Amino acid sequence: MALLKERLLDLYYKMVLIREFEEVMDIYAKNGTIPGFVHLGIGQEASQAGIVDALKETDYKYPDHRGHGVSILCGTDRKLVMAEIFGKGTGINGGRGGSMHINDIKVRNMGFNGIQGSTTVTALGTAFASVYKGNKDVSVIFMGDGTLGEGACHESINMAATWKLPVLYCVINNQYAISTHYRESHPQKQLATWADGYGVPNEVVDGNDVEAVVEATERAVERARNGDGPTLIEYMTYRWQGHFAGDPAAYRPDEELQEWKNKCPVKRTKARLLDVHGFPEKILSDIEKKVVDEVQSMLKFCLESPEPDTKEALKHVYAGFGEEI
Ligand SMILES: Cc1ncc(C[n+]2csc(CCOP(=O)(O)OP(=O)(O)O)c2C)c(N)n1
Ligand SMILES: [Mg+2]
Asked: Which of the four CATH numbers 3.20.20.210, 3.40.50.970, 3.40.640.10, 3.40.50.300 does domain 5-301 have?
């Protein structure tokens, strides 16, 4: 079943936004303005935008190290997300976290901590809280193909399946974990079948087809909300850049990259909006222009923002007791 054309148009905006945001982050990471490692999601926009679109604001989102796209779509003021990546005092986390540790508990963006696989375990806590409190919020974990090899993932899925917790394991299979192709580090032909060992429903989805992403994710979310437990979805996609901004990615063939660029999720959605839904080109080019302006205005805010105040370095070192999330 296809999505309503207005929803697809909105998803187009979100995907173009991720692409533009990431391209600008690439420039400022490579020229040294952004401190620390930056992992870009260029090529993976359909998976990131489509999954978030299938969720409610109260669902617990666990982005991973490649999580800018998710973090700008969860409801946080986007310029504060960008400022966090720049390590500025105006960032959503006061510039303490940077690219890999963006979080905003108000919109239930639970953030990442740099340890692959760790969120598969911490997400069980929020999933259990949903059951305990009797609400229907789902805990959604974004993770890579390589991450699935972590022991923590086995412990997590074992417990989620046994307790029928409302968890969604979103395996974004972008083919590589740093320089290792997933076929060289996993015995399964498709990683989704990994969940079979735990009796957990799973499916493989074209991660560059935003409509397929939304539909599969909504099915899994529905199951979790109904008390039917976890699902694992493998979204097949590709990262166009190296593992981090600056990695030349010499380990993969040029033809392979080109083949995936031909399956560009943004261009595919655009073609559908033009050819199937009959939107005039002008509507789409206006969206593209609007996105450029939006990202430039965020960038201006970031570049003009102050560095964090060193006097505040010890603030937030200890969490408050009994704070609701
Ligand atoms: C426990 C742990 N081991 C190793 C690393 C180093 N590391 C960071 S990203 C990464 C590869 C992750 O690959 P994948 O899960 O496929 O995600 P992708 O980078 O492709 O999005 C590794 C090994 C880490 N951060 N944590
Ligand atoms: Mg990967």
From this structure: 3.40.50.970
Q: Atom 13 in ligand 1: which residue has the minimum CA distance?
A: 177
Q: Which of 38, 11, 153, 188 shows the shortest CA–CA distance to 101?
A: 38
Among the bound ligands, the one closest to the CA of 121: 1
Nearest atom (ligand 1) to Cα of 66: 21
CA angle 221, 271, 216 (to 5 degrees): 15
- Is the Cβ atom of 145 under 6 angstroms away from ligand 1? yes
Which pair of tokens denotes residue 50?
Answer: 């489509």
Q: Domains of the chain: which residue ranges?
A: 5-301
Ligand 1 neighbour 242 (Cβ under 6 A): no
Query: In a 10 Å sphere around its CB, with 0-12 CB exposed, 13-18 middle and 19+ buried, how is residue 274 labelled?
Result: middle
Model confidence at 312, in pLDDT bands (50, 70, 90)?
confident
Which among 194, 195, 188 is positioned nearest to 223, based on CA atoms?
195
Tokens (6 digits) for 247: 């990695």
Choose among 170, 195, 157, 167: nearest CA to 50.
170
* Predicted confidence band of residue 46 (pLDDT cuts 50, 70, 90): very high
Helix, strand or coil, per DSSP, at residue 35: coil
C-alpha triplet 31, 33, 36: angle, nearest 5°: 100
Which structure tokens are listed for 323? 């704070």
Q: How far is CA 171 from CA 2, 191, 279, in A?
A: 23, 8, 32
Is pTM, for the whole model, over 0.90?
A: yes
Q: State the closest ligand 1 atom to the C-alpha of 145, by its place in the atom list counted from 1.
A: 16
Measured in angstroms, how far is the CA atom of residue 132 from the centroid of ligand 2?
A: 33
